[in-house]
Amino acid sequence: MIEQINENKDGEGLENVPRTMTLARRPLRSSELGVPSKLDDPEEVLDLIHSYGLFYTVQEPDQTIHFDHKSAKDDFTDGQKETSAVFPFGQAACRSELGCELLSVMSHSLKQDICSVKHVDVLRDEIDDDTILSHISE
What is d(CA 126, CA 123) in angstroms, rounded to the nearest whole number? Predict the structure, then answer.
């Protein structure tokens, strides 16, 4: 996989998936991996995961992606020079960059009062399910 990343001349792309998977604290679904990996389509994420061969396993039906072996994840975290394509500025810098990117995505997509309740002291039981569903599915 490191050879694939080093041979990629198209700039960023291939290294984002192993970087995100290594920094994640749990297995991720293909839809979750898309944003930090800068891939819009979950199918594109899965295609890339399959191109990495035996490093990852995709668990159906929710398309959860796992490292096959702990040693595969360790290959990216051992600090060796070969992994510089995945962590060019070190893991701490990449973790910080990933956090900032995710915060930026959330700040553009999250909003206050998603159910248009207008009052902060309203309990969940005081709102009917249809109102919630109509606002969440938007």
Answer: 5
